Amino acid sequence: MENVPITPSYYKSYCRTNYTKNIFDYTWHLEHFAILYKTATKIQSAAFPETARYTFEIRLFHTPLNWDDTVIKFYIFTEDPFQGSCDISTILLGKKKFISTAGYVENGSCMYETTASALLKYTNGGTLTLNFTITILCDILTKTLHVKSVPLDTVNNSTGMEKHENLIRARASICPPFVIFKLNECRAYKISKNLLRSIKSSYFSSICETCQEEEENDITINLNVPSSDYFQMILTFIETGSLPIYSDVPTILELLSLSFTYDVKDLQVTCEKALILNITVANVLDILDITMKEPTSILKEHVMAFIKFHLNEFTNTATFKQLPSSSLKEIVESIAEHKIDIKSVPINTRSESS
Asked: Whose CA, among 7, 16, 75, 86, lies 20 to 30 Å from 195?
């Protein structure tokens, strides 16, 4: 057995259970039921279908002092126990009234118990019409897929080491000198110069190096950026090591793209892991798009595994159907490149006694 790593890790697995089903629909008319329920103790249906696999039996437990309190039980007899359901309905004036269902069905199972007064409400001219729908699940197959684990060191700040790193960040963030970013000539954001150097970003390091003559003093940098909000999120991440609390997938995707632009590797790793935790059929194409443009090997592996496992749902989305043929070809080739092993395990649904 593989040893579980001590560091906090995120394990992602998928499971899908497939099955085929057979449905047997049986309608039983009981004429003169208002008289029959008082005189009979057992009523048996004809066997069905052509192979005569199933028979229903009604057993009546009379209460002579009050016939309407007669207890009526429905039983099913079969040589082949099955996993599925047996729905019992009454039919009155063409309308079905569902009254019972059951799960695993064995020979002699009691499917439903009621009273004569409850069934008499559904008679028409003294005739009670019952409908039995047997749904049998067969060829049940479970498919599983396990994707490589991902360490959570930059997603959840929970371990002592992470708390220590955050403490170092916090101390560095209040130590002068500072770089003051003036964004789009309106918003200003102040951050420690030493902290900018510590993240080893070529972009932010170059800013610090160009102002060496003012090494001991605060410096102001005027920047025109496409979005001052996203740039401020990057600076906040550099200070805290965390993404915004309520980051949605579009925000994380934008931050991931900017992590390459500004060479902030910690932000890149954190965004990738956050996206891995939030892949869905609705957003997987958006996440896939960035894995095609940027070197995101871990994220891409998870995206490919997700697509392969959810291929039917994925190909039925409106977004997928609108993709150009060149994009479809690229997706198919990418899936083929990743060796993704989906294991199939048949499930025995019968009890040991059967």
From this structure: 7
